[in-house]
Amino acid sequence: MSDRADNSAPLADDPQQVPFDTGCLGCMFLILVPVVVLLTIAAFDSTFFAELAESRARRNPLPALAAFDTGGVNVALLLLLAPVVWEVIKIARRFIDMKAVWIEDETIRFHPSLGHKPLPLAALAGASHDADDMRLVLVLRQASGRRIEVPMVDHAAAEAFVAEVARRLP
What we know:
Helices cover 45% and strands 23% of the residues. The protein is an alpha+beta fold. Strands 1-4-5-6 form a four-stranded antiparallel beta sheet.
């Protein structure tokens, strides 16, 4: 029974791990999923697409995409939909595994959706976090001058992680 209690501890309590901010991810997910559904329907339903294209919205780009309708499918809209679907998949993967960045032995590891290779702790010059009212970004500065930015992370966990990295650096 005690193993389960250990596994249920929040990631923010461990200074060696930084979880994603579920509030940011949740908001993005709630916005992007309806957009994906709407654009998918519009791409395959020419009457729905026509209704959206005739909207009196100030900046409606859909009339320009009407020329790309091929056999009842709007190819341009599908191409525009692809990066949005990719972002929804990345957000879903982040919900499944909440660890954005963590220290394992003497290596910093990143969530697969971030696309960074593991980084030896000795290769870091420092870590910081940029915070404002809307976002928080964990910044890892390598000795080579390269910066790695990890967006949408938990604020308290990022502060603890920065302190842990500073403690471990020579």
